[in-house]
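JOB MANIFEST
job_type = single_chain_structure
chain_count = 1
residues = 265
[input]
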Amino acid sequence: MHFKFNKKYIFISSFLLLSFFTLYLLHKYQFFRNGEEKSIDNKVSEVLQITNCFLSRKRDLKQFEGKKLLAFTFDDGPSNQSTNKLLDNLDKYNARVTFFVLGSRVAKYQNSLKRAYEMGNQIGSHTYSHSNLYKLEKNKIKEEMVKTNTEIKKLIGENVKLLRPPYGNIDLEMKKITNLYTILWDIDPKDWKYKDKERIANNIVKNAHDGGIVLLHDIYMTSVDGALLAMERLEKEGYAFVTIDEMVELKGITLDKNKTYFYFN
């Protein structure tokens, strides 16, 4: 896959690298005088790693202009084998996806989630314990949000802004409590039910449309296989596979926390 940086990202990357290099020289001189040269070298190395991660996550969205856009989303993860198989194959189709993860699984599968994030995929919340929000008191809904965000931010250093409520159950009052953007779906191959990659792929391809959001679950290998098979077929039909954030930017949409998004026009 080839990344094409536009002028904005070239300027940002150049500015950041120049700034860190300048700080490096200044601090290296002072720490050298204090006999702590090795310590600052390690700190600068960590900062540069973070900077490189930030820059590598950004894609030049101009490459997708004029294409039909599809957002593949994956719930209930992360996991090890199936999530990583998906990540292993995304570059084949120049694809990035959105993961709506359970907070209770983040620590156990942190390597998979961190890898997904560093590749440029988007991470959203699917609550902490997959509870039906309709059955929870207000304080419990808030707790589900806070616990999940805490686990994710601890790993990737970024606050969650997208929510997929379990079973799609949410109302306006709950939205105000969560204070997140609600993302549902309009393409559901029922991968959790059929566990057949061909059937899953066929359902996705049959119902695919520009601006569509596909619901899948990366805890099942058949779901991952079906998604990859659908990408292979849809790429030939002129589709590009983007995250929710990328979709919104390309469509020129400003998200509203009071709304529920099933697809993007």
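[summary]
The first helix runs from residue 7 to 33.
The beta strands are 68-75, 98-101, 122-125, 162-163, 181-183, 212-217, 239-241, 260-261.
exit_status = 0
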